[in-house]
Amino acid sequence: MSEHDTTSRRGILASLAMGAGLVAAYGVLGLQGLAFLLPKRLRPKTRLLYAGRIDDYEIGGVKTLYDLEGTPVLVQRSEEGFTAFDSTCPHLGCKVHWEPDNDRFFCPCHNGEFRPDGVAYAGPPGDAGQSLAKMNVEANPEAGVVYLEVKDVKRRKA
Ligand code: FES
């Protein structure tokens, strides 16, 4: 083997090492670029909101909370656990509220009446067989707190 062959082989190995270094460097740069771009695309479309302590809810009662857009959400506690209802009436979108004395959800726009499980039994929503939309709510008994899953909203720039 001549000295020229050795020098040539070292040159090839050096070029390969330099190429591998460049690929690794651009690869890391590319991954960092993706990490910068992807979280926005992968950002969850919902958010968990603290909805109070479990003990703040009486069994059979309903509390009105608000999502991030200011829409009332009706959170109910029963013997079985927690249920959350979107307060938007499925008929034409008025706001439904809880009437504890009548043990029903009521929509004042067209006298829509809903059972505690959210199923309509009177008024136009009852005629159409509609129900209040449910939202995800979860209680954490160990921590003694309730969380409500709501639609995320875009943040406004100051
Ligand atoms: S909008 Fe609720 S009953 Fe019509």
Secondary structure class reads: alpha+beta
Q: What's the architecture of the largest domain, going by CATH?
A: 3-layer Sandwich
End-to-end distance, in Å?
71 Å
User: Quick check: average pLDDT?
Assistant: 87
Could you tell me which ligands this complex binds, including any ions or cofactors?
FE2/S2 (inorganic) cluster
Summarize the structure.
The protein has two helices and eleven strands, in the order H-E-E-E-E-E-E-E-E-H-E-E-E.
Would you mind describing this structure in some detail?
By secondary structure, the protein is an alpha+beta fold. It folds into two domains: 1-43; 46-151, Rieske Iron-sulfur Protein. The protein has two helices and eleven strands. The protein has helices spanning 3-42, 123-127; strands at 46-53, 62-66, 72-78, 81-86, 97-99, 104-107, 112-114, 120-122, 134-135, 137-140, 145-151. It has a four-stranded antiparallel sheet with strand order 2-3-4-9, with no helix packed on it. A four-stranded antiparallel sheet has the order 5-6-7-8. The chain has a three-stranded antiparallel sheet with strand order 1-11-10, with no helix packed on it. The radius of gyration is 29 Å and the shape is elongated. The protein starts with a helix and ends in a 7-residue tail after the last strand. The mean pLDDT is 87.
